[in-house]
Write a structure and sequence with these properties.
globular, 4-stranded antiparallel β-sheet
């Protein structure tokens, strides 16, 4: 059973950057694609980005060109580099393993205008 723990959230001004991390433990990390989702207050959780086991990436249109997802299989960690942040990026960010059906606990990102 995989456990996922996110970190790296915080408060940043518009135009700034943050890097989120999601550390996995308990199961083979390389077996699973990994995804980032986010949930803003009063809104449904939405998909942000995915990285396959082979490193292929895909992004939601709202973050394409600003966010970059990557993974380090040796460290069993997936990252989300977020640049040019906007107030509408404010949300709780979650990592997700589709293979194991597991979510992390989330990390808050707040972007001030």
């Amino acid at each position: 059973q995989v456990q996922l723990v996110e970190s790296g959230g915080g408060l940043v001004q518009a135009g700034g950057s943050l890097r989120l991390s999601c550390a996995a433990s308990g199961s083979p990390f390389t077996s699973s694609a990994m995804a980032w989702h986010r949930q803003a207050p009063g809104k449904q959780r939405e998909w942000v980005a995915t990285i396959s086991t082979g490193g292929t990436t895909s992004y939601a249109g709202s973050v394409k060109g600003r966010f970059t997802v990557s993974r380090d299989n040796a460290k069993k960690t997936v990252y989300l580099q977020m640049n040019s942040l906007k107030p509408e990026d404010t949300a709780v960010y979650y990592c997700y393993s589709p293979f194991y059906g597991r979510w992390g606990q989330g990390t808050q990102v707040t972007v001030s205008s």
